[in-house]
Amino acid sequence: MHSPSMVQTRSWHFPSWYPPPPLAAAVLAAGLLWLSFYPVNWGWVGWFALVPLLTLIRVERVAGTSGRWGVLKPWRYGPIGAAYAGGLIFCLAAFQWIRLASTPMIAIWIGLALAMALQYPIFVWMVRRCERWLRLPLWLTAPLAWTSLEWYRANLHIGFAWYFMGQTQHEQLALIQIADHFGVYGVSFLVVLVNIVLFEALEAILLRRWRLSRLVIGPGVAALAVAGSLWHGHRVLEQTQLKPGPRIAIIQCNLEQDIRNDPNEADTTNRHLYHLLQEAARLRADLIVSPETSLAFWWMRIRPEAGTEQITPKWREEDRQTMAVARRLAEDAGTETLFGMVAVLLEAGGERRCNAAVHLDAQGRELNLYSKMYCLPFGEYIPLEETLPFLKWLSPYDYDYSTTPGMERTIFELKGHPFAVLICYEDTVPHLAPQFMRLSRPPAFFINISNDGWFKGSEEHEQHWVTAKFRAIECRRAMVRSVNMGVSGVIDSVGRTVALPDGVGTLSEAKARKAAFAAEVPIDDRASVFVAWGELWSIGGWILLLGGLLLTVVLERAEARRGTAAAVHPV
Fold first, then answer.
1. Would residue 339 count as lying in a domain?
2. What's 400's domain CATH number?
């Protein structure tokens, strides 16, 4: 190991402006990352957006020779604190659409940004330790650390699996086909890897420090990874043969949540859907799909397992009225329907309220029901409500609206094709759709019903579509989306847009408009490696990363026992 005195005698020959101040570098990275996603959607910027952030990994070693940044308070101005500041700026800018839902959601927006921004300083800290103590190449440790943190974030309960680096490349269909093996994490790994190669090349030029790993090994690995991904993608796209599936009529309502939340506007909500239902009925489809909670009506049913002693005259009347409404809806639809509704179910354990998708036949009889498994904090329940009652102030409602998550992965049936429903942001959870695919009878396609009317035509609509596209590729199954305010449509199993509302050509044109349109669902029978092994790749990466970090602790303590200062290695 090199001692600090040895490092300080080196001549680095770096420009006076390099390295940039840590905070300036982090803010620049935040701006580039923001440009990579909607509303700007410059995905090509994602290939170098992290380069300024990567300077924070080595800023002390390079700058320590000049005295400009060598003596920094780590959380006030230093690389870790700067990384958090930059991450927070990006998260506040990218997540700003959350505040549109309601005034209390401003606090949720800020709180979520504060939490999600932790990914950036943790990333910098992890990579700094691995490079300082293990001497591992940056092209290996940085992509591994970044994607491991993305996986951890996704596996938190509703951990907001949005704005992953791989999602910047959603328009590059050939490149993102590797998601069928590695999920969106594989694409993120690739994008971060290219960022590393560009950073190493830039630093080598500025510092005049030429090394084999920077000139050959790192770029060679990146070139092989990109070439292999493109080869796989083009091969998949060329060989994909999809079969025509059932014809589905998709309803896209266009009501902001302020209207839907107003009890006095219940008739407006129902009339809006009813008119679209009539339009959809004329399309002669096998199934009509409506968005999440599109009816101002509660689906109140007595379940078969409910005991006779639980069934009161009031419950019998509620059940009868529910079925009467279902028959009227079915009569107008003239075919099978899938409605998103709040359901109140009388079960063996008592009453349960849930966010549900209800499948009705052409006579209005209930064929099946799916209860949403991943409920959104504050949107569908108040976390820690009993322990921290003041959190109710952050609720967008002024009444008890909490729903209970479902426990069963329900499989529906349509014309001999099994299908599964993902409600609201369940299509953004990378590990949920594969759970349906591992059932004994996996779905032939997915339907996502969502209410994005909270976000009033913002970039949330396009970004939600992007996350759904990766679920389709990961599972090799088409995704049908019926979303209030959009974007509604059909994505096939390789991520191509099969259908959007009539008369529109882009995602931005498709949102914030009412529509009823129909499309055939393309059926893909192929299996996906990600469904079978995807989680193991990510878990294996975490084991390697945590093992390396543990080894850095051992080495650091060994250095301390020898009575020497922590080594600062030259780049």
1. yes
2. 3.60.110.10
